[in-house]
Amino acid sequence: MAEPVVLYDVKDRVATVTLNRPDRLNAFNIEMGAALRQAMENAARDSEVRVIILTGAGRGFCAGADMERLSGAASAGVSSATASDTTPPIDVGGPVRADFQGRFSYFPAIPKPVIGAVNGPAAGLGLVFACYCDMRFAGSDAVFTTAFARRGLIAEYGLAWLLTRLTGPGHAADLLFSARRVGAEEAERIGLVNRAVPQAELKGVVQGYARELASVVSPRSLRVMKRQLWEAMMTGLGESVTLADKEMPASLNCEDFREGVAHFVEKRAPRFTGR
Prior knowledge:
The chain is an alpha/beta fold. Helix content is 44%, strand content 14%. The chain has 11 helices and 9 strands. The longest helix is centred in the N-terminal third of the chain and has 16 residues, at 30-45.
């Protein structure tokens, strides 16, 4: 039996989703796309999961679209590249903003933090996956490239929008126009990743951070604040204030707020429920 192209594991309230084609540096194919979406839906709906880590097996994070698929598209034209790319809206157990119902733009609809642990090359579509995570940690072996301009392609799946907000328009233009390779330290300097760490420490650092979020932070707070952050990138200050004014009274009346005060006063570990 063939190995699954995406692995899914839950431990300490953290779901680890691993792209699993290590012999191809986890190059993307249609099967991987469906399995990745299913894993993300599973994590979104699992009440035991509070944080999600996305990483790659072996030496790569995701080397982009499988070159065999791209070769077929180059020969056959548009149809072979796009015909199988339609997918239903993401199912996370509630309504989803239209912007977050695209083929890969569903990551913001996941009501839990998604942390990218970039352990190797993240190219093209692999960079898209990393940028849709809520934050990114990069090992010293990580290499980032948009790749598209060197393949005669364009910035796909919203990457132009994402890069502009992560790195600013100047760096976004550089990354897209040149398709040059960027190492972990430079990626941290320009804001593409939150933190660059030695390769041997990447797994432990990311897992430790994820476990901390899963154990000492209100999952309800994380859920609401993730929505606030992504909504803020699409609206003005007034709308952000309005949303905060709506959510704060609800927070003051929730179980997690009462527990947040109680555990602080009683000097004990929190027992958040997410309600």
